[in-house]
């Protein structure tokens, strides 16, 4: 499969893979994306997705070219991407919210050296079922949620009521959860692990005074307002 350049023919029937539950892609070194825009509405039963060791992979979901009418709900619940050295986006820009992954429960991202963020804003605002988030060894990752989309509100609310475990390790350029003012609610968070994230400032400095030279401080990982009710484990290592 090392020479495979595409998986789906652009003319395949709409319901051809309607019952596909799991998809594993490994070692496809010529493949640049998994789901081109014309496939967005075709995998309503897909629950588990694993993509590993694909040297040319740049995007998992390519939404460029999708119109507003193409918006669709997926059943995707578990995502694992690993060893994709050229990956830039899991989902590329989706300002119209065309792809809904509201049922996502678990996402693991490992060894994606050029990835700069995990979710676009339109997706991150709707992850009410997310339980597990793991991001490891992504050297260029700057934030968890991208600031690329234009959002016409002063402060965003990100709410993850079922998130139990969040792990971040070997992310030397990670600076914040989201680079602008936002409110983060993780009422079920039980385990938070942060390791070797040297640029990350977890909590806002209550003594910071923007009038005396602190105007360059980056937004914190746990932002303006944060709600965490249950936290049993919170190891940190630099």
UniProtKB/TrEMBL annotation:
Coiled coil: none annotated. It holds the Pfam family LRR_RPS2. InterPro entries: At4g27190-like_LRR, LRR_dom_sf, Plant_NBS-LRR. Gene3D superfamilies: Ribonuclease Inhibitor. Residues 2-139 form the Disease resistance protein At4g27190-like leucine-rich repeats domain. It comes from the Eukaryota. Keywords: Plant defense. This is Disease resistance protein At4g27190-like leucine-rich repeats domain-containing protein. The lineage of its organism: Eukaryota, Viridiplantae, Streptophyta, Embryophyta, Tracheophyta.
